[in-house]
Each structure stands twice: as C-alpha cells, then as structure tokens.
Amino acid sequence: MKTRSYNQLCGLAIALDIVGERWTMLIIRELIGGPQRFTDLMVGLPGISTNLLTERLKGLEQQGVIARRTLPPPAASTVYTLTPVGQALKPALLELGNWGSQFVGEADAACQMLHLGSYTLTPQTFFRPALAQGVDKTYALHIGGETQTVRIVAGTIDVWQGEPAHPDMALHAEVPVYLGLLTRQIDPQVALTDGLVCVDGDEAELFRYITLCGMPTDE
Question: N or C end of the chain: smaller count of CB under 10 Å?
Fold first, then answer.
C-alpha cells in the first residue's frame, strides 16, 4: 500500500507523513520500554492485523525510526527496537498522553485494558519532578505477570523492562488495579487494606510512588 503524503514543506506535516498513520504511534509506544518481538507487538496492539503491523514496521524501518536486531542464543529471536531517531519521539508521546488523559473518563466502556508494557509511559506522563528533588528510589512493578523497573533520582524518572537488583519497594497487582492507583480511582490505603495489592518493602514507598507518578490532583 502506498503511503499517503500531505506534500507540504512543513515540519509537522512531514512528521505526520512518517508517524501519523493509524497504529504507528502506538507501535512506538510499545517500543519505548525496550525491544519487542513481532508477537509481543501483536499482544500489545489488539485489533491490528499481522499484515498491517508488518507494513507499519517496514515503513518505520525505512524511515530510520526503528531497527531490527537478533538476540543472542539461546533466544535468537528477531526483535524491533527504537533508533535514536525513534527515541527522540518520547517527549512528544508524553505530551500527547498527558493531553489525552483529560479525556480518559469519557472513553468508551468497551475500550480494552492493555498489558503493563503498553503503560510504560503512564507514570512518566504524570511524573512531577518538582516533588522528586532529592529522591533516590528504585521500584519493581510486578503487574499482570510482567515486571518493570522504575528509577527515580534527582527529579528524573526512567522506566524499563526487567527486575531491579535491590528495589526499595516491589509492588504486586493486576493491571486494572495498577491503573486505578495511577489515575487516583483507587486509594492506595484501600488497595492495601482490601488486599488488591501486595507490597514487598516499606508500604510508605507505595504512597510516595503514587504521589510522584500518579495523576495530579487538584489539591
């Protein structure tokens, strides 16, 4: 399928020519947290066809936004990863996610809940660096069978796949509960009292994490 173009000498139009097609930004969202196999991308993008995913990946690779590489044995799997050009889109994704979060409450009830990897940007979107000055913490998120590391230090945040060596807190929960905490629909104390979450380490770190990475309140 031939890619349509706005044919305008404008940075925004050119950017949309590259990443404005349906599913393209969501593919980049999936790759923000780290390399993904084709099958991993299919899981994180329910509703996309294999042919369309193949087409979008090919286009992004041709534009230098993503690259393919083969993992060393015993995995020996082909994975897709963002290039520096692709990683440069992260601030734009964070801003779009923050803008879109105001409409989450209006989302169709039929909208699908995704897996943890699809929400890698969520705590980064809500992160408040002003409150994190002087903080040096590492958190392990065990959510819905997946694990991520959240590292907060001196007003910065990074999130990646995998288990940290010495986390200050490990949070165990299902995806709906985790999202409920981040969006302030579930109170952390209620989640602890009702057994919706399990925390390894100081429970106060759960409250700190939600304060720093949860949706800002009006308070």
Answer: C
Could you give the dihedral angle defined by the CA atoms of residues 70, 76, 80 and 81, in that order, rounded to the nearest 10 degrees? -70
Q: Under CATH, what is the fold of the domain 11-88?
A: Arc Repressor Mutant, subunit A (1.10.10)
Task: Express each pLDDT in 66-107 by its tens digit.
Answer: 999 998 888 779 999 999 999 999 999 999 999 998 888 777
Domain borders along the chain are: 11-88, 116-213
Q: In CATH terms, are 11-88 and 116-213 the same topology? A: no
The class (CATH top level) of 116-213 is alpha beta
CB count in 10 Å sphere of residue 218: 3
Tell me if the pTM is above 0.85: yes
Strand, helix or coil at 200? strand
